[in-house]
Amino acid sequence: MTNRRISTAAAIALASALALAGCTAPGGGAPRTSAATTPPPAPVSGSILGAGSTAQESALRAWAGLVAAAHPGAQVGFDARGSALGRQAFREGQVPFAASDVPFSTDEVAAGGFRACAEGAQLVEIPAYVSPVAIVFALDGVDALKLSPRALAGVFAGTVTRWDDPAIVATNPTAALPSKPILPVHRSDASGTTAHVTDYLSQTAPDVWTAGTADTWPSALDGRAAQGAAGLAAVVRATDGGIGYVDASVAGDLPSVQIKVGGGWVEASAAGARTAMDAARIEQGRAPGDLATTIDRGTPARGAYPVLLVGYLIGCSRYEDAETAALVKTFFSTAVSAEGQQRAADAAGSAPISEELRTRAQAAIDLIS
Q1: How far is it, in rounded angstroms, from Cα 160 to Cα 182?
Q2: Domains of the chain, earliest start first
Q3: Least trusted range by pLDDT, from 22-36, 219-233, 265-279, 345-359
Q4: Torsions phi, psi for 102 (to 5 deg)
Q5: SS3 readout for the chain
Q6: Cα 194-200-203 angle, rounded to 5 deg
Q7: Burial zone of 72 (CB within 10 Å; 0-12 exposed, 13-18 middle, 19+ buried)
């Protein structure tokens, strides 16, 4: 493959997206240690533009700010166009990295054609963002709601259509549930968040949710469509009887559903998402730097919240441009660092990844050249 620098169109987009890098980290930071034990990071410079997930945008802003603070000559911009379009832009070589809420499938990896990468390079896919997906609703007179996996699947599949349906009343006996229609809201764009929600429904209530796992909402199902995470939250907020799904970072003041896990009820939380992530496993048969994971949505682990989103940073093990490689490697390393994970948690309410996963992620990032 020939050298794939950012295209002219992407360069134009970079001019506006670089505002992300202006969100630099506050002063302070880790305590000083001697240069002998903790050498300063090698300086990097230049500009790169990534594309993808709207759910990860707040975290990406935080990571870009940390890079800019540590490397005044470096800037990282991001075009939050959605996971599917981000993966497409990366595959077509428009951007050197993508942020996606789902990794490339093994079939997609086998097909190759990743024009952002140098000839013969392998994919590096890092699970750097772990966040609960909140099932949000707006229902006059109701601010707390418990739904079993089957009831929730029925709501989104269109078989549970009214708020006083027996399947909902059974788990909310004291709630003043009105006899009014349920108005499901889904993403209109291809979305990693949609993929995670449909995966949860498919794993926990396959006889009710028969549409499988998909990043595009099934066209045969009714519901209101909204563009992006913020758009979906806005539609739910404006719709009495509305219910939908968003990354917890954009849920705002909307109440969210508690779901049944094992013998208890669990609300959306970073701690619950972290517990569920700890039960996930890295898929076998992938390249050394490809850490795609499989999530057990039916885990009975105490406190686990299995409607979680795992966001990936996706790059190449080798780039034809050394400056691009250095910037991508620095950005990814910053994202998975303890400070990067904490800044993302502060900005987006995400769950810092475990030390074990951080070690594996950094080993994968170290393959980038």
Answers
A1: 8
A2: 8-19+46-130+279-296+308-365 (3.40.190.10), 132-274 (3.40.190.10)
A3: 22-36
A4: -140, 145
A5: CCCCCCCHHHHHHHHHHHHHHHCCCCCCCCCCCCCCCCCCCCCCCEEEEEEECCCCHHHHHHHHHHHHHHCCCEEEEEECCCHHHHHHHHHCCCCCEEEECCCCCHHHHHHCCCCCCCCCCCEEEEEEEEEEEEEEEEECCECCCEECHHHHHHHHHCCCCECCCHHHHCCCCCCCCCCCECEEEEECCCCHHHHHHHHHHHHHCCCCCCCCCCCCCCCCCCCEEECHHHHHHHHHHCCCCEEEEEEHHHCCCCCECEEEECCEEECCCHHHHHHHHHCCEECCCCCCCECCEECCCCCCCCCCCCCEEEEEEEEECCCCCHHHHHHHHHHHHHHHCHHHHHHHHHHHCCECCCHHHHHHHHHHHCCCC
A6: 135
A7: exposed
- Adjacency order of strands within the sheet including 146-147: 146-147, 258-261, 264-266
Q: Report whether 156 contacts 175 (CB < 8 A).
A: no
Q: What are 207-266's pLDDT values in tens digits?
A: 999 999 999 999 999 899 999 999 999 999 999 999 999 999 899 999 999 999 988 999
Q: Which of 325, 137, 316 is nearest to 240 (CA)?
A: 137
Kindly report the number of other CB atoms within 10 A of residue 323's CB atom: 15
Positive/negative CA dihedral, 87, 89, 93, 97 = negative
Q: Which residues contact 217 (CB under 8 A, 6 or more apart)?
A: 186, 187, 188, 194, 223, 225
Sheet with 74-79, side-by-side order of all strands: 74-79, 46-52, 97-100, 308-316, 123-138, 242-247, 183-187, 224-226
For tokens 């951080």, what's the residue?
A: 358
Dist CA 43 CA 73 (whole Å): 8
pTM of structure: 0.84
Residues 333 and 81: their CA atoms lie apart, in Å, by 23
Per-residue pLDDT reduced to its tens digit, 152-166? 999 999 999 999 999
Tokens of 79: 């075009």
